[in-house]
Amino acid sequence: MPDLDPLGALLIIAVGVIAGTVNTIVGAGSLLTFPTLLFLGYPPLVANVSNTVGLVPGTISGAVGYRRELEAAFPLRVEDGFSPPLRVVTHGVPCEKPMLGPGP
């Protein structure tokens, strides 16, 4: 792991804020954060894992922020959230409403 000086920390924070904003709007913030971490000397695996973990809070806050728009565009039922994982667990048993196109 590289030693992080104050300027590097400031760069990570600034790029993180910009990337979080971009992720919430269009979802391409990793195009900013991953190269920044590589530029600062982090190994690719560490940069990739950091990016993936960093996406979780942005995704949650984006969903909360856009919940009214999401509810209007995609009226979901409770069982819609369970059917794709259940389908994977049951090895492809067709569900009532396929989420990703035609089933097996």
Cα(first) to Cα(last) distance is: 45 Å
> What would you call the quaternary organization?
single chain
The value of Rg in angstroms is 19 Å
Which ranges are low-confidence, i.e. pLDDT below 50, for 5 or more consecutive residues? none
- Can you write the helix and strand succession as a string? HHHHH
Number of E strands: 0
Tally of individual helices: 5
Biggest β-sheet description? none
Q: Would you tell me the structural class of the helices and strands?
A: mainly alpha
- Give the overall form: elongated
Q: Fraction of residues in helices?
A: 55-70%
Strand content: under 5%
Mean pLDDT: 76
Description:
- With 104 residues, the protein is mainly alpha-helical.
- The protein has a domain at 6-74.
- The chain contains 5 helices and no strands.
- Helix 1 runs antiparallel to helix 2 (30-39), helix 1 (6-25) packs across helix 3 and helix 2 (30-39) packs antiparallel against helix 3.
- The longest helix has 22 residues, at 44-65.
- The model has no long low-confidence stretch (mean pLDDT 76).
Brief characterization of the structure:
The chain is an all-alpha fold and 104 residues long.
Descriptors for this entry?
68% helix; elongated; 104 residues; 5 helices
Secondary-structure topology with pairs:
Layout: H1 6-25, H2 30-39, H3 44-65, H4 67-73, H5 78-89
